[in-house]
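Notes from the pairing session

We agreed to fold both candidates in a single pass and log them together. This is the raw record for the first candidate, unedited. Please don't reformat it; downstream parsing expects exactly this layout.

Candidate A
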Amino acid sequence: MLRRHICEYRTAELDDIFPKLAGIGKDTILSEVKNQLNKHFPGNQEFKDKMAVYNFGGHEDRAKYVLEQFEYNIIGDQGEYE
């Protein structure tokens, strides 16, 4: 969701995306959800480019959260942050 927001994708498309996910069978749910979401969400390069110039003005908490998640992804959650 953050990727779509940062890349300024229309939120109205979510009304089409999420109902389709509800019909996925249990046996293939993880791979199918990933596959469907990858079709509708920005790729890594687009997100990287847009993130570099995104204006978080007034939403500093959101910016801190995003940067914290990047760091957790790189070094792992070592329980150092609150």
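Candidate B (folded immediately after A)
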Amino acid sequence: MGAPATPSAPDGQAAGPAVAAFRDPAPFSIEAQGHALSFHPDGPGRLRALLALIDGAQHSMRMAFYIYAADASGRQVRDALVAAARRGVAVTVVLDGFGATAGEQFFAPLIAAGGCFCCFQPRWNVRYLIRNHQKIAVADETRAMLGGFNVADDYFAPSADPRGWTDLAFTVEGPVVGRITGWFDALARWSRNPHARFRAIRKLVREWAVGPGPVQLLIGGPTTGLSSWARHVSQDLRQAHRLDMMMAYFSPPPRLQKHIRTIARTGSARLVMPALSDNAATVGAARALYARLLDAGAQVWEFEAAKMHTKLIVLDDRTYIGSANFDMRSLYLNLEIVLCIRDAALADRMRALIGEYLPACTPITPALHHARRGWWNRLRWRASWFLVSVVDYTVSRRLNLGL
């Protein structure tokens, strides 16, 4: 991750009073389709919820994360896992071998206490491109925690902290947790096998059955055809009349851009994008798409108060929430986990949550976008879209073209 970003207005002026006064929304809970959901928009609340999940585990604790840092928060979570293992809980941790800086040495106390640690390990072949971008914690096969957050100090800091990310995590209890457990176990078996073949993980993604009902567990990843995550969100975009999205990285392919513009023309589309990120090229990549979205009637906002890492899509009465961004990598390449919940009351509540961020946003009007859209910025935005969508985040983070 890059250096902490300092909030600023789009034209380089000082942040306005609403931006400076912004504080994370309060946690809230809601029942939806036989499931109990609790949402944590605040960083300290995310850490408390994760630690409470681990401390409350009696039989098993499963965790998978993309980024896991060997910092104060990482040590606090690790020590809670060690304490769980010592009281007889079966603990399994799967980290991405590319994204996580904490490794086997860091987790030696957990291994010594009887826990299991392994990496989803990239190789210098086609598999190297794949990231285990999922964020999963499951206690006793009955309570799960998902979302966009990682285990690092930045993700558990409040948005008012210059280090902090604006992000969203949620806990869920209900029948879908059994499905989450089953997916985690398949992922862990593959990760533990040093001879596992890449085609096996593709087969897992391809054959994942989301099942019937209003609460569906969607899995994204590299496979022939579309994964369940990419297929379902694409289908809903084609049919929806209302879209509300708050998205950290937004650089979808032209086909999905077209669906969003259709929604904007025939219904309504509200998009909240980051003005600040650890990877400025992702901001430029999204801005490259604004002109046609605005022409179609979409409302576009940029969140100014902090770096934004939230991944939330509401399409009519369906809420998509989990680890996936709305970009080429999350749609077609990374391993992702997303819940899709069809529930009108939940959709309304999540739209209201998005609304709580708008006072700290700049509305991107056609006039403002035109004023920004000189030839040099257009060139940088288009180059950013190419870097993010075609090359790789690792490269684009270093070559952010001064954005």
